[in-house]
């Protein structure tokens, strides 16, 4: 893989991970009740839109196993942000398996 291509991929991974972290913070700070005019909703909607775009770019730039792992993480995170978790479940624990699967798939491709 050329250095330019590797640099593009690395920047995209950084973008996806960074926005994913923002989305996780939104999940952690999710109020029990919110509406379309709440600051949390407006901020979180922007974050999730950026994460959606980054996830689609992963599909374009990486082999499908990397995208599949990114997609599973995105779907879990999206569900958690908008629907919440049952009482007693941890945001971190809920996301851990798919987050690590994505990172491991990306590492394998980046060598």
Automatic annotation (TrEMBL):
It comes from the Bacteria. This is Uncharacterized protein.
């Amino acid at each position: 893989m050329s250095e330019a291509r590797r640099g593009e991929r690395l920047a995209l991974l950084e973008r996806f991970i960074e926005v994913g972290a923002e989305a996780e913070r939104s999940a952690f700070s999710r109020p029990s009740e919110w509406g379309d005019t709440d600051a949390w909703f407006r901020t979180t909607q922007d974050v999730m839109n950026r994460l959606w775009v980054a996830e689609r770019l992963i599909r374009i730039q990486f082999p499908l196993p990397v995208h599949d792992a990114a997609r599973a993480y995105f779907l879990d995170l999206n569900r958690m942000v908008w629907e919440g978790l049952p009482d007693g479940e941890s945001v971190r624990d809920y996301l851990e398996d798919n987050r690590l699967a994505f990172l491991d798939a990306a590492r394998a491709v980046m060598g």
